[in-house]
Structure prediction request, 292 residues.
Amino acid sequence: MSVLSKPLKIALLQLSAGANKQANLSKVREYIAKAIKENSSLDLIMLPECFNSPYSVSEFPKYAENIPNGETTKFLSDIAKEYGILVIGGSYPERGQDDKIYNTSVSFNRQGEIIAKHRKAHLFDIDIPGGITFKESISLTGGDKATVFSLPDFGAIGLGICYDIRFPELAAIAARPPQNSFAMFYPGAFNTTTGPLHWHLLARARAVDNQVFVILCSPSRDITSGYHAYGHSLVVDPMGNIIAEAGEADEIVYAELDPELITKARAGIPVTIQRRFEIYDDVAKDAKISDI
Ligand SMILES: NC(=O)CC(=O)C(=O)O
Prediction:
């Protein structure tokens, strides 16, 4: 039996976010209504990284909210409940109890209850001369756990945020026993330097490494903003094939995750049972998993 119990129908909302939080949330609401109108049998909606605020280290503290008591968490919970749909709530800046700021993703069941919370573990601190310099650690603190949770009626999934995809350990922890996830979801905002270099490569690599679906949801590209997101929200199957992809503008991407594709990939190339843990350590053993 596959680790995914039945086909999962998903929609990725590739949307840009501006300075006005209310306008950003209204746009999300409008696109969710559109997605459900276009595809009434949808199971899950996913949003991009930083969908309620600009992607900017100086702006994060101004937009940061308490989770679960802030307005964006309530907004997402209401949507999940209203439409009876699973929601992977992209990410938004969180002000923790410790007064530190995190880049956090919250997921909801069909009743609007929180089923997972992931704090971006690996902060995006890079400096590519002639390309891009970015330092999330100026205002953000990294989370300290991997996130794996059960998507009701479907099975386990892992979740990381953007730069987390560069670290294969989180996906390996999610995909291997004892977690046995069928997919890795990454809300992510690569940019016009790193996107063309690595976006597809990393998504396909994580999929093939672990024989799972990999789903990336990006903001759309707004060249009037301070950060030019790459776009190209993506769904990759367990063999590494791209089965759905957005362009650069606002767009909804639909895909169906078919359990048979996992079964076939694992039967044909049985790496899941060929690992040599007597040669190297299994990162999935004793991993620190988020418990909300
Ligand atoms: N924005 C990110 O967190 C990551 C990114 O753009 C990259 O890894 O490239």
